[in-house]
């Protein structure tokens, strides 16, 4: 059983192309995160799968069955909305029970299923309340409960955590992780937060301008980003990408000179801030740059260097008390941590 | 300062109340007065009350069916306007289509023409249909102006409900129509109630169309009152009795939905 988008295109009446021939296939049981900046088409992809929008071209299939023209209620898909979309005139219990009532489930069975899912989401004590009396986190749990209670094959979540405050967001993230492990359901989760994507997903689909840029496990996306866009989008602070030239196996850009395994010519070098090493002694392989800004985000320290107009960021856990802005610092760019991108297209070279 | 402000406010309110209520109270008193008390040259606040005006007009003159005519016309046109207007308003609130705002404005313009200007065409229209002198003609005529009111007011109420609610209902298993009828309409119920009451009042009070379209059979109360102006003089006691009965439903409804009504009206005004 798999869900597949086949050359799915969505153009809106105002002329914008939200999705451009999207091909995406994943198995039931996965936790898929659609990740991208605003306007990347991730929400559109989610709404197309839900059936709330109709594609302008292409097909969507679930388990080999074409569902492109199927109304939402026949798709066996539940959905959680960013603004919760709870029915304010119904109690929490009735909100959760609503999909079951529509399906004419017997009353004692409804009682049992609602209790069960409410306990799972730890909202059992609020069942008699009205949505207006709930906190953001509680309301979000009710929305999740409502989407799960009738056990649809797929549960869609459109930025479900972005209306919550930071601490609650972390907490709900953990809860969703737990839920996915326990229920073994398919989750499709839309977010622009790379950290949420990294922690939740079994696989991440990175979208940009309506196109699928990379679809892989979080680890692979982090370690082998397909291009400069993914490299800079994943990880905070973003990966350093430095434009320069390779001559005789040495990459040069401003004050940076380091050995690379690359053919001569223009190159964009990438290195993650946490993989740049502080060199204790000036060695031949080290680069010396001047500290521009120092930010202590305990227990880590961020050092930002200026290199002829480009900034280079380093993230380290080692003690930087002695380092002050304006001071030159020796750095080492380990060869195994380097990413090579095409200088023009930004695509990964290898 | 605060205290004197309060006294002033109460004073102003009292004045407004006196001005607004005196005619009504006078009418109420008149309906219980005998002929001599009514025609006395100086106003009489104290008199021997009589109940004779009510049976005289409602039973002897057979005005009771007029109450039912009024009810049928007002309820009929209200139900018709809401049933047709609310789905239209929902479409205006949710969908985008070419010429939407122009069409919406067109609904409003139907209320801008002076009613008298379409009275004669309406009469000819209903004569062709064979509906003159029936309540149906008045129900349809009243729907013509109540409909635009419903569309105009309900659009704002529907727009206030996030569209994700419709979508959530559809994900939960409703069709689009099901989501509207089972979820959106209950959520918009306060606005719907305010709109319906306003329609009811407008239709209940309407005189011109009813007067032109029905001569006898389907007469509502408003058209019945001029019948009490006879060549031998106006029967003020009976006029007052009819007027008292005619204002009762309005009073009851307005008190029932006062809060929603004010909100509904101001809302329409701001959003429009």
From TrEMBL, chain A:
<keyword id="KW-1003">Cell membrane</keyword>
<dbReference type="InterPro" id="IPR003439">
    <property type="entry name" value="ABC_transporter-like_ATP-bd"/>
</dbReference>
<feature type="domain" description="ABC transporter">
    <location>
        <begin position="3"/>
        <end position="234"/>
    </location>
</feature>
<keyword id="KW-0067">ATP-binding</keyword>
<keyword id="KW-0472">Membrane</keyword>
<dbReference type="InterPro" id="IPR003593">
    <property type="entry name" value="AAA+_ATPase"/>
</dbReference>
<dbReference type="GO" id="GO:0005524">
    <property type="term" value="F:ATP binding"/>
</dbReference>
<dbReference type="GO" id="GO:0055052">
    <property type="term" value="C:ATP-binding cassette (ABC) transporter complex, substrate-binding subunit-containing"/>
</dbReference>
<dbReference type="InterPro" id="IPR017871">
    <property type="entry name" value="ABC_transporter-like_CS"/>
</dbReference>
<dbReference type="Pfam" id="PF08402">
    <property type="entry name" value="TOBE_2"/>
</dbReference>
<dbReference type="GO" id="GO:0140359">
    <property type="term" value="F:ABC-type transporter activity"/>
</dbReference>
<dbReference type="GO" id="GO:0016887">
    <property type="term" value="F:ATP hydrolysis activity"/>
</dbReference>
<keyword id="KW-0813">Transport</keyword>
<comment type="similarity">
    <text>Belongs to the ABC transporter superfamily.</text>
</comment>
<keyword id="KW-1278">Translocase</keyword>
<keyword id="KW-0547">Nucleotide-binding</keyword>
<dbReference type="InterPro" id="IPR013611">
    <property type="entry name" value="Transp-assoc_OB_typ2"/>
</dbReference>
<protein>
    <submittedName>
        <fullName>ABC transporter ATP-binding protein</fullName>
    </submittedName>
</protein>
<dbReference type="InterPro" id="IPR027417">
    <property type="entry name" value="P-loop_NTPase"/>
</dbReference>
<dbReference type="InterPro" id="IPR012340">
    <property type="entry name" value="NA-bd_OB-fold"/>
</dbReference>
<dbReference type="Pfam" id="PF00005">
    <property type="entry name" value="ABC_tran"/>
</dbReference>
<dbReference type="InterPro" id="IPR047641">
    <property type="entry name" value="ABC_transpr_MalK/UgpC-like"/>
</dbReference>
From TrEMBL, chain B:
<dbReference type="Pfam" id="PF00528">
    <property type="entry name" value="BPD_transp_1"/>
</dbReference>
<feature type="transmembrane region" description="Helical">
    <location>
        <begin position="7"/>
        <end position="29"/>
    </location>
</feature>
<dbReference type="InterPro" id="IPR050901">
    <property type="entry name" value="BP-dep_ABC_trans_perm"/>
</dbReference>
<keyword id="KW-0472">Membrane</keyword>
<keyword id="KW-1133">Transmembrane helix</keyword>
<dbReference type="InterPro" id="IPR000515">
    <property type="entry name" value="MetI-like"/>
</dbReference>
<feature type="transmembrane region" description="Helical">
    <location>
        <begin position="179"/>
        <end position="204"/>
    </location>
</feature>
<keyword id="KW-1003">Cell membrane</keyword>
<dbReference type="InterPro" id="IPR035906">
    <property type="entry name" value="MetI-like_sf"/>
</dbReference>
<keyword id="KW-0813">Transport</keyword>
<feature type="transmembrane region" description="Helical">
    <location>
        <begin position="135"/>
        <end position="158"/>
    </location>
</feature>
<feature type="domain" description="ABC transmembrane type-1">
    <location>
        <begin position="67"/>
        <end position="257"/>
    </location>
</feature>
<dbReference type="GO" id="GO:0005886">
    <property type="term" value="C:plasma membrane"/>
</dbReference>
<dbReference type="GO" id="GO:0055085">
    <property type="term" value="P:transmembrane transport"/>
</dbReference>
<feature type="transmembrane region" description="Helical">
    <location>
        <begin position="104"/>
        <end position="129"/>
    </location>
</feature>
<feature type="transmembrane region" description="Helical">
    <location>
        <begin position="71"/>
        <end position="92"/>
    </location>
</feature>
<feature type="transmembrane region" description="Helical">
    <location>
        <begin position="235"/>
        <end position="257"/>
    </location>
</feature>
<comment type="similarity">
    <text>Belongs to the binding-protein-dependent transport system permease family.</text>
</comment>
<keyword id="KW-0812">Transmembrane</keyword>
<protein>
    <submittedName>
        <fullName>Carbohydrate ABC transporter permease</fullName>
    </submittedName>
</protein>
